[in-house]
Design a protein that fits this description.
Elements (H helix, E strand, L loop, with lengths): L3 H15 L4 E6 L5 E2 L3 H8 L4 E7 L2 E6 L3 E6 L4 E6 L5 H4 L2 E7 L4 E6 L5 E6 H7 L14 H8 L6 H5 L10 H11 L12 H20 L40 E3 L7 E3 L6
């Protein structure tokens, strides 16, 4: 699933490429991805609108429109926003669920192979209501060790599960939770509320470093993630633990443990380094 680094990459690319572009028409071929709208209403609201800004919130890509509405895309497992100037491969267009035609002749496709992602059209008031439950953004200045401590405090749940709770911290998913905990040398199964201040500080630093490194490398591509140009992210080869269960720990050489026991998701950790 695209997490913060992947959706941040898409949003930055699209903001540079289509901010200021005017939409001429919208074609919906797979309406089951739509939320809070239907094909006719979506086409009517978007035709003639100007894309003012493209940005990210949590794991969503948000297009701010001149109409005051927001087009909110949550890619989930196989979704991607692909900008087509005429060279997009037919294999990618095959899974396009909707196509947004721009006045300059380009087309923005929402491609989703399994159609598990969503595209929603929200008025500003609805958008503000929608994001109320979301937690702090981990790359914003307001995300401090004290804020992280409050997010983990008084919980007996595994720290890895807490990191992935979007109501506490927005944007972290399974890949980067594994990586941050390895860098911080913290056992993913430890109760979040029992972490000492020094461990919280180490985790805070690790979260920021892991996410910034991943954004710089344009995200991780294991299967379906692509950036707005259809290119793969480069993080995969640099991951220390995720996807490396059974292989040696990069730090100490101990065999990495791969288990679904902590939160039902694949958790990979070093039983020697992470305590």
């Amino acid at each position: 699933m695209p997490e913060l680094p992947e959706t941040e990459t898409i949003a930055r690319d699209l903001d540079g490429a289509i901010a200021g572009a005017r939409i001429t028409r919208v074609t919906v071929t797979r309406p089951d991805v739509l939320r809070e709208t239907d094909p006719r209403a979506l086409a009517a609201h978007l035709a003639g609108a100007v894309v003012q800004r493209v940005w990210r919130r949590a794991k969503m890509v948000v297009l701010d429109l001149s109409t005051g509405h927001h087009l909110v895309v949550q890619p989930r497992f196989t979704g991607a926003l692909l900008l087509d100037g005429g060279a997009l491969p037919a294999a990618e267009r095959r899974y396009s669920t909707l196509a947004i035609r721009l006045r300059d002749g380009r087309t923005l496709h929402y491609r989703d192979i399994r159609r598990l992602g969503t595209v929603a059209l929200m008025a500003d008031a609805r958008w503000r209501e929608y994001i109320v439950p979301l937690g702090v953004e981990p790359l914003e200045p307001g995300f401090t060790p004290a804020v992280l401590s409050r997010a983990l405090r008084a919980s007996r749940q595994a720290v890895k599960k807490l990191l992935m709770d979007q109501r506490r911290i927005a944007g972290i998913g399974n890949i980067y939770a594994n990586e941050a905990l390895w860098r911080a040398r913290i056992d993913p199964s430890r109760a979040g509320g029992r972490l000492r201040p020094d461990a919280v500080g180490a985790l805070h630093a690790a979260i920021g470093a892991v996410l910034r490194d991943a954004v710089a490398a344009r995200g991780t591509s294991f299967r379906d993630y692509r950036d707005a140009a259809g290119e793969r992210g480069a993080v995969g080869a640099a991951l220390a633990v995720y996807g490396r269960g059974g292989l040696p720990c990069p730090a100490c050489g101990t065999r990495l443990v791969d288990t679904p026991a902590i939160d039902g998701r694949t958790t990979v950790f070093c039983p020697r380094c992470q305590r």
